[in-house]
What we know:
This protein is of the alpha/beta class. The protein has two domains: 5-106 and 218-310, Vaccinia Virus protein VP39 (Rossmann fold), CATH 3.40.50; 122-215, Putative methyltransferase TM0872, insert domain (DNA polymerase, domain 1). Helices cover 41% and strands 14% of the residues. It has helices at residues 15-21, 39-47, 61-70, 88-94, 111-115, 141-147, 150-161, 166-176, 182-193, 204-215, 217-231, 245-257, 291-296; strands spanning 29-32, 53-58, 78-82, 100-106, 232-242, 279-281, 304-310. A seven-stranded mixed sheet has the order 3-2-1-4-5-7-6, sandwiched between helices. Strand 2 (53-58), helix 3 and strand 3 (78-82) form a beta-alpha-beta unit. Helix 1 packs across helix 2 and helix 7 crosses helix 10 (204-215). The protein is globular. The chain starts with 14 loop residues before the first helix and ends with a strand. The relative contact order is 0.13. Mean pLDDT is 93; it is low at 1-7. S-adenosylmethionine (SAM) binds next to helix 2 and strand 2.
Amino acid sequence: MSLTLTKMVHTPVLVDEVVEALNIRPGKRYVDCTLGGGGHALAVLSKLQHSCELLGIDSDPEAIRIAQHNLYDYFESTVIINDNFYNLENICKETDFQPVDGILFDLGLSSLQLATAERGFSFQNSGPLDMRFNPDEQLTAADIVNKLPESKLAQLIYIYGEEPFANKIAKNIVNSRPVTDTADLAAIVINTVGEQHGKIHPATRTFQALRIAVNRELDHLTSALEQSLHCLAPGGRLAVISYHSLEDRIVKNFMLRETRACICPANLPECRCKHTPQFILINKHPMIPTDSEIAINPRSRSAKLRIAQKL
Ligand SMILES: C[S@@+](CC[C@H](N)C(=O)[O-])C[C@H]1O[C@@H](n2cnc3c(N)ncnc32)[C@H](O)[C@@H]1O
């Protein structure tokens, strides 16, 4: 599948806030763990022109191709790697890109992935039920939808989609098997829960659940956050943009835990955890887009940016 480069537009979310959050300085190294089309990366690199370096990671080879095109002017300051960010520490070691002064995660999927019906992320279009960020991975959304026992499917939709009608949706999916098309799945969900009333399309939660499961998003995020602690130099910044409560909870709990001296209940005298704080929080409450950013880029409406600094 090949896209026309000129059509590729993904507006980076909270871009000024991210540049500020990473505290970009000359001669320093920054990692963009979710390179996408390179929107944030370009903002980071252009802040000081050619005087800082950036390592960009994305598991989607198509995103890598687009980012290489968009970051061409900075190719001497940029290392681009097609890999999963759960390999963050290894990637930094293997590319000798360490220690690192700032790490960015802009989670989820890009507008480009969403707009490409063949990738199977969108309930607005007809396409194969795929949803893999990396097409070399085995598991697709169709495997989950067609092979999981009804109770497990309901559990998955409930937990990863926080969908209150998960049981009914799973039942109707199982009764409609095989389901291989995104539009057919969206229709099953609409037939189960009814047409859209509020701002959120009825299939949003089911599609979110499947995407999270296909890409093991929460496990990979948890692992990569831990690794970021080892990669960051003292004073280095960690900035994470999340788009739903499951991701945000993981980021928030991780940052809070790593700001505490001891995580044992009541800091017991016999405590042996010897946990020393690793971070200070730069913003106590997450930053969110302004109304004007949301008006220009509606995709930003659920974004939350959390920032911490390594001690
Ligand atoms: C919201 S987009 C990033 C957009 C980017 N910040 C920009 O401005 O163009 C998220 C990107 O992260 C990638 N991604 C998601 N999970 C990943 C993972 N575990 N490892 C590497 N890349 C991942 C997706 O393929 C997607 O391209």
